[in-house]
User: Which sequence fits this backbone?
């Protein structure tokens, strides 16, 4: 069946972006979300602005939107689209696509961040040996962060001043190591004795936060790191994931999910304390979090139990725990990221 935990899927990426106006009210702000919806043949990459959908692709090829960042009047979306043979990493600016890779190998753009006039995109591309190579594009110019000897993936990018942080994972030949690259220099968050990945990175002041998950062979444990020091959110009894992290004032918010023994429950942890976004009757996943003022926005998906064993996945946004459906549940859809401006 299609209920595969996302922690086991290497192409899933979600990021969190800082709201620099977090002390302001949300009057007149727009909520942006990106993801995809199935058209009966392929997944169509989509952008929702305050609930109104725009197709980024025409549906003739499979595509997915992974990350969104709004700067001024410009909306940037990172993702990928097939070319008939391979997935091509792409960046959409105001709906106009630019290919970041040539399509000779599978490639994925997983996160976008804008700082001043510079547009940063991270992701990964498989080489001729089928090893994922972590990539960072700055204004379209690519830099490899790994050498391709062992497979690696990148999921999130954050720019603070002159420093560029990328989070992801790299294999040591046996296990995946959770890593953060700062200006191209890697720091390992785990020692390589367990499978691990850093799904999201966030900078607050001088502190470097990351969220992700770690497994020693059993269920994945949701965790976050602050300056390399790790805190576990879950006890390992059930599969869990910490997909996105956001820091506002002194509060640390993490979005993810945890299995309840039957289904996965979408969750938000605030300073380590969990709040369930779903009741556990259907599979649900929280993928991205954004804090604006006193409001907490989360994007994700929940299955509706209609039309099959588990039904269709419905693209969802939660604001302060209250859900809004972005799709009608007659076909599969997902939201990968949320941004408020």
Assistant:
């Amino acid at each position: 069946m299609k209920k595969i935990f996302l922690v086991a899927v290497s192409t899933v990426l979600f990021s969190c972006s800082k709201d620099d106006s977090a002390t302001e009210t949300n009057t007149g702000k727009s909520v942006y979300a990106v993801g995809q919806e199935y058209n009966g043949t392929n997944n169509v990459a989509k952008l929702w602005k305050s609930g109104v959908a725009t197709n980024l692709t025409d549906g003739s090829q499979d595509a997915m939107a992974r990350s969104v960042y709004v700067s001024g009047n410009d909306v940037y979306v990172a993702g990928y689209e097939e070319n008939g043979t391979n997935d091509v990493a792409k960046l959409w600016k105001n709906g106009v696509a630019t290919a970041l890779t040539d399509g000779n190998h599978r490639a994925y753009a997983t996160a976008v961040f804008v700082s001043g006039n510079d547009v940063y995109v991270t992701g990964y591309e498989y080489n001729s040996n089928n090893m994922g190579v972590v990539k960072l594009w700055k204004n379209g110019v690519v830099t490899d962060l790994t050498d391709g000897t062992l497979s690696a993936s990148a999921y999130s990018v954050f720019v603070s001043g002159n420093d560029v942080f990328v989070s992801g994972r790299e294999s040591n030949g046996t296990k995946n190591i959770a890593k953060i690259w700062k200006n191209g220099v890697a720091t390992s968050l785990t020692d390589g004795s367990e499978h691990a990945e850093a799904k999201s990175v966030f900078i607050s002041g001088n502190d470097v936060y990351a969220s992700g998950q770690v497994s020693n062979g059993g269920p994945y444990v949701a965790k976050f790191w602050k300056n390399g020091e790790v805190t576990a959110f879950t006890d390992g009894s059930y599969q869990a994931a910490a997909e996105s992290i956001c820091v506002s004032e002194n509060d640390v918010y993490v979005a993810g999910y945890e299995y309840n023994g039957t289904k996965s429950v979408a969750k938000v942890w605030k300073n380590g304390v969990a709040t369930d976004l779903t009741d556990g009757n259907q599979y649900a996943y929280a993928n991205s979090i954004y804090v604006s003022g006193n409001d907490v926005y989360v994007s994700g998906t929940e299955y509706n139990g209609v039309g099959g064993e588990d039904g269709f996945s419905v693209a969802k946004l939660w604001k302060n725990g209250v859900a809004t459906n972005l799709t009608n549940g007659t076909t599969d859809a997902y939201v990968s990221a949320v941004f408020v401006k």
Observations:
- The first strand starts at residue 31 and ends at 38.
- The two ends are 38 Å apart (CA to CA).
- The CA atoms of residues 222 and 238 lie 10 Å apart.
- The mean pLDDT is 93.
